[in-house]
Amino acid sequence: MTGSDRAAVVAGLGSWVPPTVVTNDDLARHLDTSDEWISSRTGIRRRHVIDPGGSTGDLAVEAGRRALKSAGEERADIVVVATSTPDRPCPATAPEVADRLGLGGVGAFDIAAVCTGFVYALGTAAGFVQAGFARSVLVIGADTFSTILNPADRTTRAIFGDGAGAVYLRAGAATEPGALKGLHLGSDGGQSDLIQVAAGGSRQRSTGLPAAAEATYFTMEGRPVFAEAVRHMASSVTTTADAAGWAVEDIDKVVLHQANARILAAVAERIDVPLERFPANIERVGNTVAASIPLALADASADGELLPGQRVVLGGFGGGLTWGSVALVWPDITAA
Ligand code: COA
What we know:
Layout: E1 6-16, E2 21-23, H1 24-28, H2 35-42, E3 46-48, H3 56-71, E4 78-82, H4 94-100, E5 107-111, H5 117-131, E6 136-143, H6 154-159, E7 163-173, E8 181-187, E9 195-197, H7 202-205, E10 218-220, H8 222-243, E11 253-256, H9 261-271, H10 282-285, H11 292-302, E12 311-318, E13 322-329
This protein binds coenzyme A.
Subcellular location: Cytoplasm
InterPro entries: ACP_syn_III_C (IPR013747), ACP_syn_III_N (IPR013751), FabH (IPR004655), Thiolase-like (IPR016039)
GO cellular component, one term: cytoplasm
């Protein structure tokens, strides 16, 4: 295989959500909200959350194990975990996940791009494979936003859920199904305040003063985030399809970060692709941040919605702000 023929190929897919379910009615018992408001504004009906004592790493290990199984592999050269809710601020979560998966002393690191984390991680991993620095990479997206939400914030409590999803990338040929192509990444740090946890990093810790409790919670300005998500995911998907050599109308499935069912509908309208081509599992899991795209892939694959040979574009948008997308022809794999 020459350098230009070598590609990173999706060869396995796994996902995991913790068993505890919180329905909209459960939230309405403690907060001034309703199933009607949440489902009509977001498309979400329930979400999964970890039990006390659980962690993002626990979910990442489960999803990673399943992706390895799906690929029929027992090892990977590198483990990348995309997360904004690491088990600890320091060190990264990935080394412990690699250890718990029995992968020995492989390279392992985290990537933080909030809801775009999985796309950023996939792009980074593909770079290692394509450059010949690794033959395989286990890419895991895992988050437990239930641990950083303000219990009194009805908006974020309604939207976010916990979960993990993982893809096994291996070296292959650019012409193979599953080969990644047309990666596009973007950011707008000028709007970093729209989605944030204000304290816990160097800015609010370096004062030496304890942070106010509210500053340790996740906050989001829903309206501008909605508009930016639609704008950037639509243009990113178009850019990536173009780079892959596809007309937008030739895309069979657009698997977007599951932030809000109305965002999916607005992107579909903007790029003029029928909404039926946008797989959605948001009703069952909510917004699972870095886990969202691989979880949506696993569910769409299990539901028979995502089929081998289909032209697929994956797209994300999130805090940073960040956005990105990547294209591939869906390979013949079974999600575990
Ligand atoms: N239940 C009931 N009412 C709620 C509510 C809830 N869970 N959450 C917010 N509201 C209220 C607000 O307080 C506001 O009340 P007010 O008019 O009395 O002030 C009203 O509903 C409208 O709020 P607004 O934020 O304008 O609603 P919206 O239609 O924009 O929907 C979001 C809010 C958060 C669902 C929507 O903006 C959204 O999905 N944004 C993108 C979020 C996202 O995808 N984030 C992740 C990006 S990666």
